[in-house]
Design brief:
Order of helices and strands: HHEHEHEHHEHEEHEEHHEHHEHH
Structural class: alpha/beta
Helix content: 40-55%
Distance between the termini: 16 Å
Number of strands: 10
Number of helices: 14
Largest sheet: 8 strands, parallel
Length: about 375
């Protein structure tokens, strides 16, 4: 098996049954990188760039934005080309398709839109399941394998500018939220897709938007906002958990740097891993949001996120588009891993969780 492992490392292959540490640092680090791109056809320069990064093992996933959607046929073609770039370890191909106002695929290109979470909450449970089953099937047929949902934020602050404003929450009752979010997850799993519970540790009580800048939820956030995560993790209904960029002094104590939750070991390793028992993939919210880029450069963002326990680093690549962004993030990870054995070990842990999810989804043997 060791000879096979060495050969496969030379060829860039993964070895079924081999531990994460048997893979190269470069391959393991690449799986942690997910980026946005430009282009809406398989031959567009931006699409070619991420396809080449996937083929070299520098990135392990991409996320679609509306700028990538010209037609459903073109979307399907892009996705086929991305999977073909590294078929033995295909990329996560993700999008935000929650319903309502938060969607990348719209009726304008012939996609069947679904209602917002708030509107779905007014339906019967059976109708909610049917809505999400239809959505998941449509996404899977286009080649997507991750949908960034469901939103499990509690609708605590009616003036919230990013959750309540867009009707993204199912309600204020964690039991109801868990039930509807579970229907979302189960429907997507039925179509072979993974999901991401968001926005940990709870964005529904905030009074500001992390897209714009630093958001302090001290004195606003409530422990009940963890309940949907706790219940869905216990029920094995959490593939990924998306961590938001929220600061909370009540939980983080004497954190002099006032790190957002996406860069906070207290939140990721402490609350999410130890307290809630989550063993799956922790994925960041977009690390180009104002809450991050107004305070941290690219190098520090990547390093601090990994040290905090983040598995997948999501960059929308919209703040200042860079066709080589995925390669640059990958190089930061590799350089830090070579210089610091503890950092390399963190990369190996993340790779193990990511690979476990891809195997669970049937993406790899």
């Amino acid at each position: 098996m060791r000879i096979l492992a060495s050969l496969c490392l030379i060829l860039g292959l993964i070895v079924p049954g081999e531990p994460a540490s048997a893979q190269s640092l470069e391959d393991m680090a690449g799986q942690m990188v997910m980026v946005g791109f430009r282009g809406s056809s398989p031959d567009a320069a931006g699409v070619r760039a991420v396809r080449e990064q996937i083929a070299r093992g520098e990135i392990g996933g991409v996320t679609f934005l509306r700028i990538n959607v010209d037609s459903l046929a073109a979307v399907s073609g892009i996705n086929r080309s991305l999977i073909a770039a590294r078929p033995w370890l295909p990329p996560f191909i993700a999008l935000d398709q929650e319903g309502g106002q938060i969607e990348r695929l719209t009726a304008a290109v012939g996609f069947d839109e679904i209602p917002s979470a708030r509107a779905v909450a007014a339906q019967t449970p059976d109708r909610a399941r049917a809505i999400y089953a239809g959505l998941a099937g449509d996404l899977a047929r286009l080649g997507f394998n991750v949908n960034f949902g469901p939103v499990v934020d509690l609708d605590i602050n009616p003036d919230n500018p990013i959750i309540a404003r867009y009707e993204r929450a199912y309600g204020t009752d964690p039991v109801q939220v868990t039930a509807l979010a579970s229907a979302f997850v189960e429907a997507h799993r039925g179509a072979g897709m993974a999901t991401a519970l968001k926005h940990f540790p709870g964005h529904g009580s905030s009074a500001a938007d992390t897209h714009e800048g630093f958001v302090d939820v001290t004195g606003m956030w409530q422990p009940v906002e963890l309940e949907p995560y706790r219940d869905m993790i216990d029920a094995d209904l959490a593939d990924m958990v998306m961590v938001a960029h929220l600061y909370n002094a009540d939980v983080q104590g004497n954190d002099a740097r006032q790190l957002p939750s996406s860069l906070s070991r207290t939140w990721i390793e402490g609350v999410l891993r130890r307290e809630l028992g989550f063993a799956g993939v922790a994925i960041s919210d977009d690390l180009e949001m104002g809450a991050i880029r107004s305070r941290f450069d690219l190098h520090d963002t990547v390093v601090v996120a990994v040290e905090a326990g983040m598995d997948v680093l999501l960059f929308s690549n919209t703040a200042a588009y860079d066709r080589a962004l995925g390669s640059e993030i990958h190089q930061i990870l590799v350089d830090e891993g070579r210089a610091n054995p503890e950092f390399a070990d963190r990369i190996a842990q993340s790779y193990g969780r990511i690979l476990a999810l891809k195997r669970k989804m049937g993406m790899v043997p």
